[in-house]
Protein: ABC transporter permease
Amino acid sequence: MTTDAAALGTLPKPGRSLAGLVFAGQTGPVVVIVLAIVALWYAACLPMNGGLPSMPAGGTLAERYAAAWSLERPVLPSPHQILMELRVSTCGRLPEGEGWLTAFFSCEIRWSPRNLLFHGWVTLSSTLVGFGFGAALGILLAVAIVHVRSLEKSLMPWIISSQTIPILAVAPIIIVVLGSQGITGLIPKAIISAYLCFFPVTIGMVKGLNSPDVLQLDLMRTYHASQMQTLLKLRWPASVPFLFASLKVAIAISLVGAIVGELPTGAQAGLGARMLSGSYYGQTVQIWAALFAAAALAAVMVVVVGLVERVTLRLMGARR
Structure:
């Protein structure tokens, strides 16, 4: 065996293929998937836009694709049209007399209702307020459900059934009821966001607070620990990973709630209002740009929650 092991140790290590190198980490697969989606997107532009009256009748396949990628009001805009709309709606129109690449990255942001960043901030403010309300409500409900057994049987079915009602039906009711009381603007949208995001926090925290096993709970009882001490020293630390997993879902859902809350109000500002105005005037590129801005905003918020999670767990001594 010693001889075999020595012989195996002298064998050259097999080389890794190009595909193995690309898919070794996380960046490679993500880039490949994104490139595949972009290629399919460009390919789908001609079938989707081919029937529009603004499309030229004849021409080669390349000319027809070039026309489909540059229509003013396409059914499916090309990715570079959305990118240009994002550039123009945040940094203004491209300056003349400069190279295209230099002009594209020269940005002069003007804070006005015409700027997409202004609309993003309006939606973000109601999202964060609703997320704060919803997360606090979800944590309080979870603590109450864990400590009061009757609440688990009486309250949990109502919490679950509350999410079966479509938010598109609930949002106008909340807007109308609060509007009749003179409450308009940020608060109704924040309440809709809180309505959506309290549910995952409640479910995650109930599971997290119940995660300590029976032996750990019995040990706390042998120490004559009160319910508050058991909560603070055992249940709460055990529930932190569940809390952050729930918060990542909740903050993305709260953004959806804020956008939905802007639709029935006829709001003049916000990403939802931007999408609505785009649908009124047939500006599909504007709709897609607002959609991409909302997706980027949600991704940034989830990343921020993830960073807070890493710092919190590191401070608690977790090894990740």
